[in-house]
Design goal:
Blueprint: H1 7-10, E1 14-19, E2 26-32, E3 37-43, E4 48-51, E5 64-65, E6 71-77, E7 84-90, E8 96-98, E9 107-113, E10 119-126, E11 129-136, E12 144-149, E13 153-158, E14 164-169, E15 180-185, E16 191-195, E17 203-208, E18 217-221, E19 228-233, E20 238-241, E21 250-256, E22 262-269, E23 272-279, E24 285-287, E25 296-298, E26 306-309, E27 311-312, E28 318-324, E29 327-333, E30 357-362, E31 368-374, E32 383-389, H2 403-410, E33 414-419, H3 428-431, H4 440-455, E34 459-469, H5 471-482, E35 489-493, H6 499-503, H7 508-518, H8 526-532, E36 545-550, H9 558-570, E37 575-580, H10 589-607, H11 612-615
Parallel strand pairs: 32-33, 32-34, 34-35, 35-36, 36-37
Antiparallel strand pairs: 1-2, 2-3, 3-4, 5-6, 6-7, 7-8, 9-10, 10-11, 11-12, 13-14, 14-15, 15-16, 17-18, 18-19, 19-20, 21-22, 22-23, 23-24, 25-26, 27-28, 28-29, 30-31, 31-33
C-alpha cells in the first residue's frame, strides 16, 4: 500500500465549464478547492482568465453568468440544505442581492438566463408545489410567476430575447416522471403550447435557440424508448426529429450552434460515449474524432440537467469537455484551432492513475448491466474490492475522473462501479426498471456484479465492500441487510435508511420524486416503504457499517439515520457514524480527502478483523 494516494485529491482540477448565454465568449469554470467549489471567469474572446475571489457564497457549483457577464446567479441556502433563495452577486465588488425576498424558501430545480436581455427563469419546489418564475437579473424588478403546478415541474428555460419560457411538466401524467415540455408567454403568462409524446414517451427541454426571435426549442424525446434530439417550433406547431435509427442506445442532445443550424449530441451505447454533430439543414449526422472517455454527465434532479457537458463555442466551434477515470476534466478542440485556457486553469498533471474497463454483466433475469472495474496496477489475482454505487437513482457513472477510485487502486484494493437498473442513458426501460418495488431489482444487479467480479478473479469473495452516496448509500445499507454475508462492510454516505421516517423530512422536491418512484405515498401503501427500508433488516446485518451524514441534509434527513443507527445497535450490529456540519453534498478537497482516509482505515481494519469503532479511536 502506498502513502502517496493523496495526490489524487490534492491535485487542482476543474469540475465544470459553463459558457455564458450573452454576447462574447465568457465561461464560468467551477474549480475544486480545499474548502469547496470556487469560480474562475474565462473570457476566451480576450484570452483572459480571472479567479472570482469576490464571489464566495451560494451554491457555486451550480452558478450561472448573467447575459452582460457582470453578475453571477446562485442559490443561497442554510449550510448546504439546498433550501433558500437565488441571489445575484456583482463580479466587481462581490455585493449580493436576493432576487426573490418575498418568496418562501425553495429548492431549485432549474435556472436559465436569457442571452440578450437581463432576464432569467428559475424553477422552484416548495411546500405549495412547483413553480416557474421570471426574474430581472439586476434586481430592478420583482419576480413574476409564470406557471404553478402541484405535480413535478423541472428545468425551466428561457428564450434568447426572453419572450418565451418553457418548463418540463407532468400535469398530463400526474405522479409519473415522464415529462412534457410546456411553453409560456413571459409577458402574458399564457400557455402557448405543450409537446408530449403520450404517457409512454417523455420529452425534456434542452435549450431555446440562441438566435433572438427564433422560437424553436431543442428537446430530447423518447418515442423509440431511447433519447433522440428533436427541434420543436412551439408557435408553429412543427418539429424536426433526428431519428438516427441506425444507432443503438441513447443519442443525448447537449447544445446547438450560435446560428442554430447544428446540434451537438452524445451517442451512449452501453455507457460508452461518442460525440456527434447533426446538421439541421442537410440532415447529416456525423461523428467527431476524439479520444475515449466521457463528454457529459447527467444530473437530472438539480439546477441543471448536466453536472458538466460539452458545448459549442463561437460559430460552429465545438468545445469537448473530456474526462476519464484516470484523467481530470480538460477542454479539447472539436473543430479547428481556438484559444483554450492555459495550465493555470487546466493543470497538466500526470497523476499516473489507472483506467477502468467497461464490461457488460447479466443480471438474474438476463438484463444487461454496465460495470466499470479495474485491478490495482501489477496485480493479477483476486484482491479486496470496493463496489461503488452512484446516487439518484436516475444518475449514472460515466468514465470521469474519480480520486476515490484511484485512491483505492493505489492502495491495492480493486475498484468497480455498477450502473444498476435506474441509471440513465440506457433507455427508458432500464431507467424505470427499478420501480415501483424499490431495491428489489437493484439488489439483483448488485449480486450479479459481485458474482461476476469473483468469478473473473478480480475480487476476493470474502473481502468485498460496498459504498455509495445518497441512493447509493441507501443501496449499500439495504445490501448488507438483504444480502447478508456477501459484503465485508458497508461505507454509506448520506443514505436513506428509513423511507417512512425520512419522507416527511425531505424537501418537497424529493417527496414528489419519492412518490413517483414508489408509485404511491406512504399513506397509500405503507408496506411498500417498509419493505424498501434498510431499517427493516437490521437483525440480519452481519457486516460492519459506517455512515457519513450531514446535519442539514434535506434529501436524506438526519433523524432517519439516527433511528437506523439505534435500531442496528439494539440488534447487536456494528455501526459507526461520522456527523458533519453541512448538507447532502461533500464540499471541498480537504473533506473528501479526510473521508477517503477514514474509509481506507476501516477497510484495513476489517481485513485485520478489527472492530470499526476501535479502528477510529
Amino acid at each position: 500500500m502506498t502513502r502517496n494516494w493523496h495526490r489524487f485529491f490534492t491535485a487542482e482540477r476543474p469540475l465544470a465549464v459553463r459558457r455564458g448565454r450573452g454576447p462574447g465568449d465568457r465561461s464560468l469554470i467551477v474549480v475544486e478547492s480545499d474548502e469547496g467549489p470556487r469560480l474562475t471567469l474565462w473570457d476566451a474572446e480576450h484570452g483572459t482568465v480571472r479567479p472570482l475571489s469576490e464571489v464566495t457564497s451560494g451554491d457555486l457549483a451550480q452558478a450561472v453568468l448573467t447575459s452582460d457577464g457582470g453578475h453571477v446567479l446562485s442559490l443561497h441556502d442554510d449550510n448546504g440544505s439546498e433550501v433558500g433563495h437565488v441571489h445575484t452577486t456583482r463580479l466587481d465588488d462581490g455585493v449580493s442581492h436576493d432576487l426573490t425576498p418575498d418568496l418562501p424558501p425553495y429548492t431549485l430545480r432549474g435556472m436559465d438566463v436569457a442571452g440578450r436581455v437581463d432576464r432569467a427563469v428559475i424553477t422552484c419546489a416548495a411546500e405549495d408545489g412547483f413553480s416557474l418564475w421570471l426574474l430581472s437579473t439586476d434586481g430592478s424588478a420583482g419576480p413574476e410567476l409564470l406557471l404553478r403546478s402541484g405535480n413535478e415541474a423541472w428545468n425551466g428555460l428561457i428564450s434568447a430575447d426572453a419572450r418565451l419560457a418553457c418548463v418540463d411538466t407532468t400535469d398530463h401524467n400526474p405522479g409519473v416522471r415522464r415529462f412534457a415540455v410546456t411553453v409560456v408567454d413571459t409577458v402574458t403568462g399564457a400557455v402557448l403550447a405543450c409537446l408530449s409524446d403520450g404517457p409512454e414517451g417523455p420529452v425534456r427541454g434542452v435549450r431555446f435557440s440562441p438566435v433572438p426571435g427564433d422560437d424553436r426549442v431543442l428537446v430530447a424525446t423518447e418515442r423509440t424508448g431511447f433519447a433522440r434530439p428533436c427541434v420543436w417550433h412551439p408557435t408553429r406547431g412543427t418539429r424536426v426529429d433526428i431519428e438516427a435509427s441506425h444507432l443503438r442506445g441513447d443519442l443525448v442532445p447537449l447544445d446547438w450552434s450560435e446560428d442554430a443550424t447544428r446540434v451537438l449530441a452524445v451517442h451512449v451505447d452501453g455507457g460508452i460515449h461518442r460525440v456527434m454533430e447533426a446538421d439541421l439543414e442537410s440532415g447529416e449526422l456525423r461523428p467527431l474524432d476524439h479520444p475515449p472517455g466521457a463528454y457529459f454527465e447527467p444530473d437530472v434532479a438539480d439546477t441543471h440537467c448536466h453536472l458538466w457537458a460539452s458545448h459549442y463555442g463561437p460559430g460552429h466551434t465545438v468545445r469537448l469537455l473530456h474526462q476519464r477515470f484516470d484523467s481530470p476534466l480538460r477542454v479539447l478542440n472539436g473543430d479547428g484551432p481556438e484559444n483554450l485556457p492555459g495550465p493555470e486553469v487546466f493543470p497538466r498533471q500526470d497523476l499516473d492513475g489507472v483506467r477502468c474497463r467497461s464490461t457488460a454483466v447479466r443480471s438474474a433475469d438476463g438484463t444487461s448491466l454496465q460495470l466499470w472495474w479495474a485491478r490495482p496496477r501489477g496485480v493479477e489475482g483476486p484482491v479486496p474490492l470496493v463496489l461503488h454505487l452512484h446516487g439518484g437513482p436516475n444518475l449514472v457513472t460515466v468514465d470521469r475522473y474519480d480520486p476515490a477510485a484511484q485512491a483505492w487502486l493505489d492502495n491495492g484494493v480493486a475498484y468497480a462501479s455498477l450502473n444498476y437498473r435506474g441509471s440513465v442513458t440506457f433507455g427508458r426501460r432500464f431507467r424505470e426498471g427499478f420501480m415501483p418495488h424499490i431495491g428489489d431489482r437493484e439488489l439483483e444487479d448488485i449480486e450479479a456484479a459481485v458474482r461476476w467480479l469473483v468469478a473473473e478473479g478480480v475480487a476476493d469473495p470474502g473481502k468485498v465492500f460496498i459504498t455509495g452516496a445518497s441512493y447509493g448509500g441507501f443501496l449499500s445499507l439495504l445490501a448488507v441487510g438483504r444480502l447478508p454475508g456477501l459484503f465485508a462492510g458497508a461505507l454509506a454516505h448520506v443514505p436513506m435508511a428509513d423511507w417512512l421516517a425520512g419522507y416527511e423530512d425531505m424537501n418537497p422536491a424529493l417527496r414528489a420524486a419519492c412518490s413517483s418512484f414508489f408509485g404511491a405515498r406512504p399513506q397509500d401503501d405503507v408496506e411498500r416503504f417498509v419493505r424498501a427500508s434498510p431499517i427493516t433488516y437490521v437483525a440480519d446485518v452481519v457486516a460492519p457499517v459506517w455512515i457519513n451524514q450531514g446535519t442539514h441534509d434535506t434529501r436524506t434527513a438526519p433523524d432517519q439515520v439516527r433511528g437506523y443507527v439505534e435500531a442496528l445497535r439494539a440488534a447487536g450490529g456494528e455501526v459507526v457514524v461520522d456527523w458533519y456540519s453541512g448538507g447532502h453534498e461533500t464540499s471541498g478537497r480537504a473533506k473528501a480527502l479526510s473521508e477517503q482516509s477514514t474509509m481506507l482505515g476501516l477497510v484495513r481494519a476489517a481485513l485485520r478483523q478489527q472492530p470499526w469503532d476501535q479502528a477510529l479511536l
